[in-house]
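Input/output pair, single chain:
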Amino acid sequence: MITVKKPRITQENGISTVTTEVWFDQEKKELAFWFDSTYEPYLTVDRGDGFLVELFYFAMRYHHDMTFECPISERLLFQIETCIFDANHEADADFYVPKIICQTVDEPYTPQGGAVATGCSCGVDALSSLYSMNEKNDLAGHKVNLLTYFHVGDAMYDNGKEVMDASDRPVNLVQYDNAKRFAQAAELPLLFVDTNFAYEIVMPQGKVHTYRHCGIVLFFQKLFRTYYYASSFNLDGFKVVPSVDCSFADLFTVPNFSTDNVTFYSSDATYSRVRKTQQIADYPLAQQFLNVCWTSGKNCGVCPKCARTQMTLDAFGKLEQFGAVFDLEQHRKKKAMQVGYAVYAHKKDYYYKEIYPLLKKAHKISMASRLWAVCFWLAGPVERWMRKQPPEKRKKFVDFAKKVNLRVPY
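Output:
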């Protein structure tokens, strides 16, 4: 049984802290999150909505029922019990359908802050989401007027340890500095929420990141009216695979987190990653602040996310416009190798599957790249072995690959 107690709220030096006891059978954990006290009037922890979204995956995965001392919004409870629980259980019978013990409430909060928000990680998905809503959309009531950055474990190993930047700071917090500069340039306020959730409830981030982000939004239902959660996959990639990656099901899952106060959208859900990259290629803010890396606070240029983004921009003839965020000389030196990996991986990797035709059409596949593809095929067993190693050991492989100018394997 997971039991969620009533939260406690404290304030010190302009920072508000919400602390909640959560019992996992006989084990007590204290979940906490911190934010600028300016936003405390919008806090809605008198309902357990945020904790339900934060914790339901863990409950399903490890077969827990759930008890909440605070009531749950009736609409949210209905959607989770009838839609999300059922979808995950049907996709994987090992995922338990929890019993939820709580009171319910069906009245919206008034008044509301009216915020229309999206995340500000400055990755391709996030920037495309903002571009779609504020540059292409002409409906004033649906334009983004608030950005968010939630520290919930996005750059974290599966064992709960943070990925560290070369400056010995967590990658997420280095990237937050970039998000602050972006928000200032975009002339939009930025809500930052820090949490200990990923440290206290260790789960592979790929399986829970949607829930962790949307759960934070539900702690501030007096603030948000609309929240755009940037999609990772388009319609072609839709599937419910709870044991693999929650992103594939965002188009279905995200709207089901809506309440009578907040409407969630899976933004740009019809766009492929290639289309999103093309959309922001001429976006001045993207050219100045795009940050796609997970191995360091700034774009390393050689990890898979950096490599895929640079190859896509290059195929569109736009890479030179991103000299402020990528080391273009480094990319030119490794281009044949990186394209070679795309040739090797395009039949089995979702992202390279859509990049490969683009590279082919743009005549970016050289003979050297094809030779590299053969090398990657021969080295395939080694890469698969490396992927199975503990996070600290994988980090050493990444550092070694960077040092000897080889492609970072993951």
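Residues 2-105 form one domain. The radius of gyration is 22 Å.
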